[in-house]
């Protein structure tokens, strides 16, 4: 359940957790870096992340966008800060409605800077009451606690009483101001319990990222941590030593709190990750279990989390793109995949496109170099499979663990000139807790049909199609070029490619091959050849692949004895198969042939003129022909 207080209650009594807080950057580049960092931090599996608001609600729109993206695209449970004293009630309603509509169920209700508006809220308690009155129990509400008393309060005891009033008004958890002394925090918790505050109290802890940041931090501490001061002051001129000493101190602090029954810790990151990673690693707080409820990344949006049970396989390596395209759906496929034309796939808006771009690990230096031959492209894909380059445009995440089961086969298929972008091995009744392919509840068994998706030349696609129709009746296939002027398929309804059998449940089929979704996906798959260059000039060879090659999917329905390699091995024996390693010329191109001549080998005149990408490429090419690139010989 996505409310933070529910997630805390569901954990084992002695099970510790952590959360991480971020702030919205001031520049587009900073926002892109933040999304990349959120993606990496998700591997540490924090219980939730928090996103702050800038002073005077200056980042309200951006903070909300980041929370929505983190919840719906990155699958992170999110605590959304809202300050109430400097923003009108009608504006508050707008952000609360946006949070509700996009599945955010956790709010950090804060007063903010004391600049009161006539129709604003004077204190955080007024805001807590307002949220509870208008939204009932939909939101989990967090409020701030001050272990040494709020600076504006007359006394520590008065501040505790104000805190109890906020809890009585509806607050569900308390996250404190900076804690650097275990005794101070433990006394604070006891004092809270003594006056009847029973909700979880989470200490806020800021790792020490630099000496200057440490000095600023001290102004928030009434009782200065002398041990920390003595430690840092002695090494203040050595930044690396300061960070390392800070990690050691925070680890010691948290271990002392753990020994006294504290289970959760809220870490202020300052949008930096080195110290956070070191701290949670040394404390053993990283959950290294591989268990997955489904064989794809889930959203943290509660409506989607509770109802979505099926997805098309095509976005298996680009889950954020799929979730962004389907964010506006109000009904998600469950049980069986129906007609995907009804909940139409949307376009990805500018902000969420930046989320995807920022978190897609493309080895730009390798991929955008100018390949001269298909063998050059093959080498890039093979190097990705072998871990020698970090990413390709079709992969938002590292190669899936299950791909290691068919890695040798994938390499061989790519070396035949079929550039793979998605695959899964066949699986026949493997336990659901298997490290490579397991998913779903324990005690079950999972099954998969072998699946392969790749780009290949028109010539090789035709050889494959002939074999498919004559010798491989158990293989389902779909083929299309970018313009859809060439399409072949023997699939007219969804085909389940992954399913599971679990105690006390109906058979689940979470992944399908769907012909309508394939037509949507192919546009994205082909466009990634070009968009990966981010405004750089796209090489001639890449344009040829983009305009003329086919995207092919194969499903081996015989998941017990079938092997997709059989058809590739048979095809490779064909005397007209184009092998990259043999330098076979695929067209009668003359030395320094123009791109229009090259494309004309594949496209008729009308189709060629209709291709805006081709026309742009042709106009750009004229100035570069004199460079004497080798594309005029053979792209193979």
Query: Which segments are poorly predicted (pLDDT under 50) over 5 or more consecutive residues?
Result: 339-346, 584-633
How many beta-strand runs? Answer: 18
| Sheet of most strands | 8 strands, parallel, barrel
Q: Span between N and C termini?
A: 54 Å
Q: Major sheet: order of its strands? A: 1-2-3-4-5-6-7-8
Determine the fraction of residues in helical runs and give it as a percent range: 25-40%
What's the mean pLDDT score? 82
**Oligomer type:** single chain
As a percent range, the share of strand residues is: 15-25%
Q: Give the CA-based shape.
A: elongated
Helices, by number, come to: 24
What Rg do the Cα atoms give? 28 Å
Question: How would you classify the helix and strand content by structural class?
Answer: alpha/beta
What can you see in these coordinates?
It is a single chain. With 636 residues, this protein is an alpha/beta fold. Helix content is 39%, strand content 15%. It is built from 24 helices and 18 strands. The chain has an 8-stranded parallel barrel with strand order 1-2-3-4-5-6-7-8. Strands 9-17-16-12-11 form a 5-stranded mixed β-sheet. A 5-stranded antiparallel β-sheet has the order 10-13-18-14-15, with helices on both faces. A hairpin with a 5-residue loop joins strand 14 (475-481) and strand 15 (487-489). Helix 2 packs across helix 14 and helix 16 runs antiparallel to helix 17. It is elongated.
Could you write a compact summary of the structure shown?
Helix content is 39%, strand content 15%.
């Amino acid at each position: 359940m996505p409310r933070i207080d529910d997630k805390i209650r569901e954990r084992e009594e002695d099970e510790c957790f952590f959360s991480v807080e971020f702030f919205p950057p001031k520049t587009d580049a900073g926002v892109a870096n933040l999304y990349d960092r959120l993606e990496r931090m998700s591997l540490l599996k924090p219980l939730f992340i928090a996103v702050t608001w800038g002073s005077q609600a200056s980042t309200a729109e951006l903070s909300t966008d980041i929370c929505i993206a983190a919840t719906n695209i990155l699958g992170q449970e999110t605590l959304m800060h809202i300050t109430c004293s400097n923003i009108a009630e009608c504006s508050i309603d707008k952000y609360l409605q946006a949070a509700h509509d996009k599945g955010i169920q956790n709010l950090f209700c804060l007063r903010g800077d004391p600049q009161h508006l006539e129709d604003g809220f004077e204190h955080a308690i007024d805001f807590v009451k307002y949220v509870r009155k208008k939204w009932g129990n939909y939101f989990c509400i967090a409020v701030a606690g001050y272990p040494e008393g709020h600076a504006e309060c007359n006394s520590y005891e008065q501040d505790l009483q104000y805190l109890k009033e906020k809890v009585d008004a509806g607050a569900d958890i308390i996250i404190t101001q900076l804690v650097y002394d275990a005794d101070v925090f433990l006394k604070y918790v006891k004092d809270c319990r003594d006056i009847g505050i029973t909700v979880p109290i989470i200490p806020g802890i800021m790792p020490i990222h630099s000496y200057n940041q440490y000095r600023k931090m001290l102004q928030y501490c009434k009782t200065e941590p002398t041990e920390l001061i003595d430690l840092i002051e002695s090494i203040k001129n050595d930044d690396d030593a300061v960070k390392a000493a800070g990690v050691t101190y925070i680890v010691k602090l948290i271990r002392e709190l753990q020994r006294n029954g504290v289970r959760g810790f809220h870490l202020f990151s300052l949008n930096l990750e080195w110290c956070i990673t070191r701290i949670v690693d040394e404390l053993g707080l990283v959950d290294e279990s591989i268990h997955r409820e489904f064989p794809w990344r889930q959203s943290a949006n509660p409506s989607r989390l509770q109802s979505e049970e099926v997805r098309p396989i095509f976005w298996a390596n680009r889950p954020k793109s799929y979730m962004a395209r389907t964010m506006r759906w109000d009904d998600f496929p469950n049980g069986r995949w129906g007609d995907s034309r009804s909940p139409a796939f949307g376009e990805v808006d500018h902000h969420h496109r930046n989320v995807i771009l920022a978190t897609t690990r493309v080895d730009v230096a390798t991929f955008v170099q100018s390949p001269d031959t298909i063998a050059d492209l093959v080498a890039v894909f093979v190097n990705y499979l072998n871990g020698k380059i970090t990413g390709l445009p079709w992969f938002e995440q590292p190669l899936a663990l299950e791909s290691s089961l068919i890695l040798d086969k994938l390499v061989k298929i790519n070396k035949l000139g079929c550039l793979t972008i998605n695959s899964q091995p066949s699986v026949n009744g493997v336990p659901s807790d298997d490290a490579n392919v397991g998913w779903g509840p324990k005690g079950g068994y999972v099954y998969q049909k072998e699946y392969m998706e790749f780009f290949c030349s028109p010539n090789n696609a035709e050889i494959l199609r002939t074999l498919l129709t004559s010798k491989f009746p158990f293989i389902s296939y779909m083929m299309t070029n970018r313009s859809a002027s060439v399409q072949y398929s023997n699939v007219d309804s969804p085909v389940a490619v992954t399913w599971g059998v679990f105690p006390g449940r109906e058979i689940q089929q979470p992944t399908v091959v769907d012909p309508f979704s394939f037509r949507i996906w192919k546009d994205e798959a082909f466009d990634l050849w070009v968009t990966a260059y981010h405004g750089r000039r796209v090489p001639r060879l890449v344009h040829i692949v983009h305009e003329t090659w086919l995207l092919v999917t194969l499903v081996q329905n015989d998941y017990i004895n079938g092997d997709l390699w059989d058809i590739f091995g048979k095809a490779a024996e064909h005397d007209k198969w184009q092998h990259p390693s043999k330098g076979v010329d695929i067209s009668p191109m003359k030395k320094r042939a123009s791109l229009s001549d090259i494309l004309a080998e594949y496209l008729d005149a009308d189709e060629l003129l209709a291709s805006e990408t081709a026309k742009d490429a042709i106009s750009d090419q004229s100035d570069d022909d004199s460079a004497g690139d080798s594309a005029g010989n053979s792209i193979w």
